[in-house]
Amino acid sequence: MAISREVHLLARPDGLPSSDQFHIVETEVGDPGDGEVLVKNSWMSVDPAMRPRLSNGQQSQHQVISGGALGTVIASRHESFKEGDIVQHGAGWRELHLSDGGDLEALDPAGFPETLYMHVLGTTGFTAWGGILITGRLQDGENVFVSAAAGAVGSVAAQIAKLKGCYVIGSAGSAAKCAWLQDTLGLDVAINYREGVLRKSLKAAAPNGIDVYFDNVGGEHLDAALPRMNVFGRIPICGMISAYNNFGAISSGVTTLSNMVYQRITMQGFVVWDFNDRKAEFLDDMRAWLRAGQMHYEETVYDGIESAADALIGLFTGQNTGKMLVKLS
Amino acid sequence: MAISREVHLLARPDGLPSSDQFHIVETEVGDPGDGEVLVKNSWMSVDPAMRPRLSNGQQSQHQVISGGALGTVIASRHESFKEGDIVQHGAGWRELHLSDGGDLEALDPAGFPETLYMHVLGTTGFTAWGGILITGRLQDGENVFVSAAAGAVGSVAAQIAKLKGCYVIGSAGSAAKCAWLQDTLGLDVAINYREGVLRKSLKAAAPNGIDVYFDNVGGEHLDAALPRMNVFGRIPICGMISAYNNFGAISSGVTTLSNMVYQRITMQGFVVWDFNDRKAEFLDDMRAWLRAGQMHYEETVYDGIESAADALIGLFTGQNTGKMLVKLS
Prior knowledge:
- 2 copies of one chain form a homodimer.
- Chain A is of the alpha/beta class and 329 residues long.
- Helices cover 26% and strands 26% of the residues of chain A.
- In chain A, the strands form 3 sheets. In chain A, strands 3, 4, 5, 6, 7, 14 and 15 form a 7-stranded mixed sheet that branches. The first copy, chain A, has a 6-stranded parallel sheet with strand order 10-9-8-11-12-13, with helices on both faces. In chain A, strands 1-2 form a two-stranded antiparallel sheet.
- The model of chain A has no long low-confidence stretch (mean pLDDT 93).
- Strand 13 of chain A pairs antiparallel with strand 13 of chain B, so a sheet runs across the interface.
């Protein structure tokens, strides 16, 4: 019998979440029974996509927050897992996880730090890879715009586009993030969307229009991008972070959709599991880019399970560069 | 030498066009020279897509309005055309058209009234067929919503969906149009969008959601449809008539686009020439449906070239059921 702490949802946020809507609960976790595995989590993933679930009912109240985690098997009575195995799961924000094994994926880090499997080598990297190459049908040398380009998914999408010889514009919400986009990631233009008028900045930044807009934001960003799209342009919709904190997931109105017709644009929402059959190909690409030093990433790490709610809120107030993680002791 | 009248654009409309922005001009048309053909137009097509061109510069001021027409060759010195041939062209709103033949398409009516080649057997029918079957990837038995369903394109799209065994909801702007949609076209539900709250009417009409939304309208219609879309739903965007009379083709804001991600929706703008390689297949389908009495249509006919501007304005004030045409004497 061991003591674990979990993060529960106390009240559903109606706008920007606040820390009093979350709650740390202590629970007793038993020893693994036959066919069970006990995992001690070392990292928890903090993702924008968690936000809508808090309001739309997919996340139950007074239950542990669903989300990605990575940990080590500390006891096992399951034939497929042994002590010391590193595993990933989506069973949420808790220190200990007692599992029947069905929700665990064993991880071979293949020489890379294990946190990379929480972002560039994990779901966020795979989301970016599939979104820009499969949904976005990116061609070498095209003109690309990525919103929230300093975020975990956006930064990978933007770098893949650069690796494919594209002209890449990225938007971010601070001068420091823009400097990172241009100086470290090598983007052609970085737009600080908090300065000036986004629509005008984007027009100036895209003299040859936009072939692929990788949208993480929606709202004003999408409104500004649509009139810049070239014929047969593609808009993979990865997320609409601008809408996540509004009641009913309503974004600021997009008024320029008639460009969809004039330029025969395709806009398509996707989620990472749409690409599951391409996982090995993704890992091959990404490991090669990492080994060649061609894929940069940053991690913003909050310490301890008690900081998890602040980490999630921080996503929506621009506190992260790159992947937001919570480290458990 | 003959006298022809043409409709010219006098001033660019900024909202709903008004008749004083158009102007009838008399011109002298010479006899055909070597390689030339003289066409006497009998029908002119009036289409929503003409509207944005009047404001966005694609239509030149003080020039004849571009648009579809159908006529008869009355004199020819071109080897491919002879007197009496029926031809279609896009050379616009004029009584006589002197052509080098390059813009003429000879028409074999195959036993159907020639005006049908201005709508169900012409561009509007082909637009509907390609938009719902190719862009919309319609599957038999799906749940379908068509906006402006009493219009020339919408009514064909809705009937094709019925022919494919689908549950079909249509919207229109009057009780009479809604009665036609239900009683003649056999739609499952017709919504009068001028009554009640469209978002609520559509929710009530779509108990099993929407798999394909054929959008002719944009704005409030699209805003209402997005939350109703099923997973992997498709939204072929044929037009956004709600935006055409607003400056800069700006529609009322669409605030529900985050559903694109949740349901992995594909939204795609298209134009009819995207389907050019499928024209024969379209004609085979449509002629068979017409012969079987399975394809209904209406024509709203304005008489004489002097009524052409009013016919165009009438499109945006709901004066037509089915295809809007101008008959020339």
